[in-house]
């Protein structure tokens, strides 16, 4: 048996290139777990064309390095043993040093091993030119001839930490392993002959038992065939009865059921057809109604334009009247000045003077009121001309202050859309008191907004919190409302907790603890029932037409009589 004197690896696992001397009598490899002891032993096993340790192979080590090739080179001692005249590697190798090498290359998607044997100590760079290449099987035969017997290969392939299992072998197995490794051919030959004879006798006995079992199996097979034939006869008779009697009955029953199902499907289809036809008629009627509403809206739009023109005319007349009032005031001031210069002490003149001063003060107050009213009317007209909503004066002032402060906000009326306009009055009845609630876009602006509200004495709520609207319960008021942005949670909860009913009679049949509202706006809550729908629409698409028309009427009344007759506006 030859002996390795050194080992060199290139691109093996995470090692690029290094050499390990093995020329000592005893070589000990020491290191913690994961330091590469098994990796080094697997490199030695691969060089000797042996299997790597359990659950590993040479491909794993080459693949982990990331290169397309790897080299393993070992130098062995080929000198003659003391008690022998033959070298481990015989002719044509006569040198005391023999170089063994293994190259692993990537071919396609797999890895391939090639082995070389060269005389003398040859480097990896020269091994291909000076050595003789072998395949795996031929290389194993060469090593076997050089003394690497299967027993020694078995010992070299033992797992790390498994060498102590040699002590667990029986005397016969241990003796066999010693004979195979160190050799005593005569004893081993006789042992093999006796073992062969014993094995042959055991095989003959096993063959006899197998024949007996085979005969039993044949008997069971014939019995099974007879049983299957009898079973086939019974099944054939049963099949004849099923085909001749039961099959026609089942087919008739299936056809009857299919006809009944088809009849029910046809009736359902007819009902759906009638329902769709009625829906189509309703859609056509609704379409005609919408056309009428559009025509009415266009008419009102023309009337509004004419009204605005008339308002401008009236404003001109109002301005002229204001000019005349100013002239009267100036004349009265001149008369008073003349009266003071005359210095009359007549009681009658004094009374006239006091009356004139009172009248002058009244006219000045009236002039100031008309001037403020003119300013407000001009602002309202400008908003109407630009298509904006005419909010109340305090709401408009507060919103203007918020805009100047850079505080983004919305009114609740800006975010509520009514998907079913027939329930307009019901929504107005519930949310009318919250129409001018200010909703902040950012919670961080709450302190500044509250400070402005305190300064301007804003009487409506300022709310910083918003939430996504939940799913609407069936028949609730929330079912006919859609929000363009997030609103406070209590608004959604309020609408979701109120049931829609056609009239008060239908609502009275509901439980006492359930709130409801009718289509006309009659609201029933925990405090009682009342008609809560306002005269003026504030929410949804109706708010633009309703508010603008009422505002125009108010402007006309103010210009004509200096007092709006619509007291509820």
Q: What this model shows, in words?
A:
With 569 residues, this protein is α+β, with helices and mostly antiparallel strands. Among the domains are: 3-148, P-loop containing nucleotide triphosphate hydrolases (Rossmann fold, 3-Layer(aba) Sandwich), CATH 3.40.50; 389-561, no CATH class. Helix content is 56%, strand content 14%. It has helices spanning 37-47, 58-65, 124-130, 136-145, 150-156, 171-182, 185-342, 347-385, 393-404, 412-415, 424-431, 446-456, 489-496, 504-508, 542-561; strands at residues 3-12, 15-21, 69-77, 97-107, 110-119, 132-134, 409-411, 416-418, 438-440, 462-463, 481-483, 498-501, 515-518, 522-525, 528-531. The strands form 4 sheets. A 6-stranded antiparallel sheet has the order 2-1-3-4-5-6, sandwiched between helices. A 4-stranded mixed sheet has the order 12-13-14-15. Strands 7-9-10 form a 3-stranded mixed sheet. Helix 7 (185-342) packs parallel to helix 15 (542-561) and helix 8 packs antiparallel against helix 15. The longest helix has 158 residues, at 185-342.
């Amino acid at each position: 048996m030859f002996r390795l004197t050194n080992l060199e690896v290139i691109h093996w696992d995470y090692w690029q290139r290094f050499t390990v001397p093995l020329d000592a009598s005893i070589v000990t490899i020491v290191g913690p777990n994961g330091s590469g002891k098994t990796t080094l032993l697997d490199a030695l096993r691969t060089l000797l064309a042996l299997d790597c340790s359990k659950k590993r192979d040479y491909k794993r080590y080459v693949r982990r390095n990331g290169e397309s090739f790897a080299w393993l080179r070992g130098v062995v001692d080929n000198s003659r043993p003391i008690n022998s005249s033959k070298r481990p590697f015989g002719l044509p190798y006569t040198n005391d040093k023999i170089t063994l090498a293994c190259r692993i290359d990537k071919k396609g998607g797999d890895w391939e091993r090639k082995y070389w044997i060269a005389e003398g100590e040859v480097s990896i760079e020269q091994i291909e030119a000076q050595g003789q290449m072998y395949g795996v099987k031929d290389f194993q035969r060469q090593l076997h001839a050089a003394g690497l017997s299967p027993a020694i290969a078995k010992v070299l392939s033992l797992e790390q930490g498994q060498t102590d299992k040699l002590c667990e072998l029986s005397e016969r197995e241990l003796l066999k392993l010693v004979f195979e490794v160190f050799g005593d051919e005569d004893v081993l030959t006789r042992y093999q002959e006796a073992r062969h004879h014993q094995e042959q006798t055991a095989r003959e006995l096993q063959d006899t038992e197998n024949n007996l079992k085979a005969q039993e199996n044949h008997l069971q097979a014939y019995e099974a065939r007879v049983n299957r034939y009898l079973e086939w006869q019974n099944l054939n008779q049963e099949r004849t009865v099923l085909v001749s009697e039961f099959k026609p009955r089942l087919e008739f029953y299936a056809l009857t059921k299919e006809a009944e199902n088809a009849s029910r499907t046809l009736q359902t289809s007819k009902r759906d057809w009638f329902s769709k036809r009625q829906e189509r008629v309703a859609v056509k009627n609704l379409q005609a109604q919408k056309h009428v509403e559009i025509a009415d809206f266009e008419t009102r739009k023309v009337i509004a334009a004419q009204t605005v023109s008339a308002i401008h005319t009236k404003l001109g007349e109002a301005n002229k009247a204001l000019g005349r009032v100013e002239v009267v005031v100036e004349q009265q001031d001149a008369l008073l000045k003349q009266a003071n210069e005359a210095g009359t002490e007549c009681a009658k003149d004094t009374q006239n003077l006091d009356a004139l001063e009172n009248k002058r003060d009244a006219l000045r107050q009236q002039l100031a009121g008309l001037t403020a009213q003119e300013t407000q009317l001009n602002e309202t007209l400008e908003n109407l001309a630009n298509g904006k909503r005419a909010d109340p004066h305090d709401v408009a002032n507060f919103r203007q202050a918020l805009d100047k402060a850079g505080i983004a906000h919305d009114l609740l009326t800006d975010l509520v859309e009514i998907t079913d306009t027939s329930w307009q009055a019901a929504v107005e009845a519930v949310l009318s008191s919250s129409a001018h609630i200010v909703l902040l876009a950012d919670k961080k602006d709450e302190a500044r907004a509250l400070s402005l509200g305190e300064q301007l004495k804003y009487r409506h709520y300022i709310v910083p919190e918003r939430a996504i609207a939940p799913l609407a319960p069936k028949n609730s008021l929330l079912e006919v409302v859609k929000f363009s942005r997030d609103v406070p949670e209590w608004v959604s909860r309020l609408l979701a907790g109120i049931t829609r009913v056609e009239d008060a009679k239908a609502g009275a049949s509901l439980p006492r603890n359930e709130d409801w509202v009718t289509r006309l706006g009659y609201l029933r809550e925990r405090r009682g029932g009342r008609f809560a729908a306002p005269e003026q629409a504030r929410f949804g698409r109706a708010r633009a037409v309703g508010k603008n028309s009422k505002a125009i009427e108010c402007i006309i009344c103010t210009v004509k009589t200096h007092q709006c007759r619509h007291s509820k506006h």
